[in-house]
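Protein modeling request. Please complete all fields; requests missing the sequence field cannot be processed.
Requester role: graduate student
Desired output: 3D structure, token encoding
Chains: 1
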Amino acid sequence: MKQTILFSIMCFLSVAVFAAPKKLVLTSPDGTIAVEASLNPSGTLIYEIKKNGATVIEPSKMGLDGDFSFVSGLKIASVSKVKLFTESYYSPNEKRTNRSFTFREATIKLKNKAGKTLIVDFRATNEGAAFRYSTKAPKAIAVKSEQTTFRLNASARAWLHPHADAETGWAETQPSYEEQYEYDMPVGTKAPQKAGWSFPALFKTGNNWVLITEAGLTPDFVGTRLAQESPNGEYSIGFPQKGEMVDDNDPNYVISKNPASPWRVIVVGSLATVVESQMVSDMAPAADKKADFSWVKPGKSSWSWGLLKDDYTIFPVQQKFIEYASKMNWQYCLIDADWDKKIGYEKVAELIAQANSQNVGVLLWYNSSGVWNSTTYSPKGALVERDARRKEFERISKMGVKGVKVDFWPGDGQSSIQYYYDMLKDAADYKLMINFHGTTVPRGWSRTFPHLMTMESIRGYEFITFNQSDADMAAKHLTMMSFARNVVGPMDYTPLCLGDIPGKKRRTGNGLELATTVVLQSGVQHFVEIPEVMEKQPEYVKEFLREVPAQWDDVKLLDGYPGKYVVIARRSGSKWYVAGINSGKEKRTFVLDLSFAGKSGLSSATIITEGDTKQSFSQKELQVQNNRIEVEILPEGGFVTVI
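Delivered output (643 residues):
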């Protein structure tokens, strides 16, 4: 009898010791964010995210489907121990040049009915949570859909970017992440186009803000978005559309021996948490440790095309814009589309020689080319094939070109992602910096490839020159960017117009335009204003534009609300640059606490804002009391100050 009891106890202990855990529980290093993942009764993996005990992502589904199905009938094979990591990296084009962050990580391994394994990695930082899928196969397999959902409370609100249907828009160049945002909608609102909603997606649920996006995308997967329908506030993942590929014959799903999804990133907390977050680059693969990126230099650039357009990409005008950049202490001059036809390689070499003598670097525009659009701007066809691309990069690198702007990308298909990676790798070999336009949204690639200076993926200033409706929306649009698009990476909006827009009525004040040089972050900041107008500005404005950095060490949101107003402080060395924008039709007064700057004893601060008219400037001394200043901003106006 005793032997029977002892045997039963041993069996019980054996089961207790060797039975697989039933769920994963992961908390952030500061303990404020919690992620739980477990199987529901049908064997589907479910996850939930909480902030300070309040649910922000309600129980939502996970899984992949295709040749290997990991949707239901799953079993947990193992749950790893939670590990704590700290990583540091250099990323000169992000919010912080030198970044350090800490996270906890754990992994669930799942088995499907066929015995195949799905690995799900989870991370929790003090800014939010992230997870990704991976699996391996002896030969290439297809992943045809992802089952991940993000379910929010029915009372939540949404600020979202409509994703354009493929091969629509001018010369079939969509999707290029260039729509106007939709503001403060009920969750579950159907997207206006079949393609759905783009990443990043911003929500407010209870007292928390949530930004959902993806990071660390590699050619082993596709770029994704949120689907058009989100019943009851449950958003699902959409794969690329037909036409978002380099080759028309490519599928709109994943084919790989090692399918690995990007990280699904959920930033959670206050608006300051969202704006200051660097989770997207944090989750991306590290740069090659052996590579030397000391040649990468963020900076400011003159640019003729923004206001003058196609007919001015000619030799004498580009000479003038190089002189302009030099006079303004800007590091670069961008020569835009059709330079090969209207100027030619030999004359561009002369411009480079002139630029070198004036401490200005030359950037050149290229068409990504291919069957995915009907654009005719050139150089066209020079970069699609690897051998031709490397030959072109070698040629212009020897000429002294510092970087390239590559426009009109095909979308988020797997072959498109491979094209991005191939171009970034080849450009690094020839020490050429990269600016992607007409492009997908950033996914942390500026950490993996520090020479990726900026990406467009925004309805930029050029649209204000095209449409009065965009000029009318400019201030509201700009007060959205800090809370969504610019959160996920450097953004080439091409700001700063202080004069007239040909054929359009500019609504924004000069103080607002100046503020964009700080509020908006980009590794290379291309300014649209032309030299003749800049020459007329007050000397204190020109001096500010000579000194304002393009490379930053820190960022803080001082005040703001999506689509209404924003005040941001960025640090470069020991100086803090503070800038604010008011999109409203009424004046707005801010009381700003400057104690973050650590400058005790401040008695006054000099601000630059609008003057007697919106299209003029004034410089004012404001009294600092108890480290606070009171700043009044005009309707559709703004300000800057330096501490």
